[in-house]
Every structure is written in structure tokens, then in C-alpha cells.
């Protein structure tokens, strides 16, 4: 696989650079490609600040250098849209999709636990998992923010590193469904990610529909909900639109 181009801004290049504990079931090339896919998903789900926007062409080149796969194709489709938008339009769309809508917020423990005491414990467990692996998240985001979880998965590998993604598979499916229903190009990033994980079972899909209809547990413990609006069953959840 071709290395990332040297012209990629330093911040972007650092975030994308593959550094992975390679599992025995994957060849080194496969492990590197998987880690890069996860890192690219992490990057593309971050707020589109000026530096990220400046790296769009290089990000597209990084995706083009990946081995052909459905996930790489989904990211290529997203980047074709991403490259053609003005920075302010990208910012507005990101805020609308991820900050103002509960069904497509990026804090994974919210879908499993809502604003309950169990969510606080889940956040603590994630933080401990990161520290045990020798990884310092920093103070910018909560440990369940999807780009953070993806970065850890890329660093620690498909076993323990991707365990939080598998644990929150239903939440990820709900986000994908909600983005598909809204017609957001970010649905392609979620489709790429979900395609790397075990497919949802019928029980998973039924649970996603219930979650979309009823929302997560509602015990209030002082955590601010991430986003506004109501939970309602998204039609996209009834049929896999990937």
C-alpha cells in the first residue's frame, strides 16, 4: 500500500498514520489497510475544521491507495462530496447531523445507557481500557465519542481495540440508518465502518427499531443529552440501505 503523501498536513498525517498491533489472522498488508480505514473513518467523522478541509485532496489520495473493497468505495463516494463543498457548508451540515439530532449523535454510550448512572460507569470503563493499553485520549472529547473509539480501534487492532465498536453495534446501526434517512453523505462513512464489523442480526435490527421508536433509558443524572429532537423509527432501519 502506498504511503501517505508527504504534503498531507502534519496533524492529518499524524492522525491517519497506521500504527497497529497486527492480529495473526490478518496479513501485515491487511492489518495496515484495516487500521488505515478505521483512522480515515475517525478523521472524516471529526468536525470539518480548517485543517481537515485543507487536507481533502490528500485524504482522497489515501483512500485511492487502499486495496479495493466495499469500505474503500464508500469512503471514496463520501470524499467526492466532501471535496466539492465550501468549508462553511460542511460545518453547518456536520452540526445539523451530529449535534442537533439524537439519532445520529456520535457519543455511543448514550444509545446503550441513555442519561443514566450506567452511562457514567461505561465512560469510566472505556477510559480504563484506553489507559490499560497505554493510550492517552487527552481532554478534548469524551471516551465514547465515535472518532475517539475508532482511533483506539486502529491503534489496538481488531481484538480488544475493536471490542467497543462491537459492543455498540446497535448504536452504530442506528446512526447509519438515521444518516441514510436524512440523505446525508456521512451515511457512506458509517456504511464503510459497519461493513468492517459483524453484520447486525435480526435481534439487533429489532432492537435498533425499538431504540429509534422509544429512545434510550431516560434516568437523568446531570449529563447533557447530545443533540435535540425526538426519537422516531427511521424507515432506513427497516431495510439495509448499504
UniProtKB/TrEMBL annotation:
An annotated Gene Ontology molecular function: metallochaperone activity
Keywords: Nitrate assimilation
SUPFAM superfamilies, sorted: TorD-like
Name of the protein in its database record: Nitrate reductase molybdenum cofactor assembly chaperone
UniProt-listed InterPro entries: DMSO/NO3_reduct_chaperone, NO3_reductase_chaperone_NarJ, TorD-like_sf
Top-level lineage group: Bacteria
Pfam families on file: Nitrate_red_del (PF02613)
Gene designation per UniProt: narJ
NCBIfam families: narJ
Amino acid at each position: 500500500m502506498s504511503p501517505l503523501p508527504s504534503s498531507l498536513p502534519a496533524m492529518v498525517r499524524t492522525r491517519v498514520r497506521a500504527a497497529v498491533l497486527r492480529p495473526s489472522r490478518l496479513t501485515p498488508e491487511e492489518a495496515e489497510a484495516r487500521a488505515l480505514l478505521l483512522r480515515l473513518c475517525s478523521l472524516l467523522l471529526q468536525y470539518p475544521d480548517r485543517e481537515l478541509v485543507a487536507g481533502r485532496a490528500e485524504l482522497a489520495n489515501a483512500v485511492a491507495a487502499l486495496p479495493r473493497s466495499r469500505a474503500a468505495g464508500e469512503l471514496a463516494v463520501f470524499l467526492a462530496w466532501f471535496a466539492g463543498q465550501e468549508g462553511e457548508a460542511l460545518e453547518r451540515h456536520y452540526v445539523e447531523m451530529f449535534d442537533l439530532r439524537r439519532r445520529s449523535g456520535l457519543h455511543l454510550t448514550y444509545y446503550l445507557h441513555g442519561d443514566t448512572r450506567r452511562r457514567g460507569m461505561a465512560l469510566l470503563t472505556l477510559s480504563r481500557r484506553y489507559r490499560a493499553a497505554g493510550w492517552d485520549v487527552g481532554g478534548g472529547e469524551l471516551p465514547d465519542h465515535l472518532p475517539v473509539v475508532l482511533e483506539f480501534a486502529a491503534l489496538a487492532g481488531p481484538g480488544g481495540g475493536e471490542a467497543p465498536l462491537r459492543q455498540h453495534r446497535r448504536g452504530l446501526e442506528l446512526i447509519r440508518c438515521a444518516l441514510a434517512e436524512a440523505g446525508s453523505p456521512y451515511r457512506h462513512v458509517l456504511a464503510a465502518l459497519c461493513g468492517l464489523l459483524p453484520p447486525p442480526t435480526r435481534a439487533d435490527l429489532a432492537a435498533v427499531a425499538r431504540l429509534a421508536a422509544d429512545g434510550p433509558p431516560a434516568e437523568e443524572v446531570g449529563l447533557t443529552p447530545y443533540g435535540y429532537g425526538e426519537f422516531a423509527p427511521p424507515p432506513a432501519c427497516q431495510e439495509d440501505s448499504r
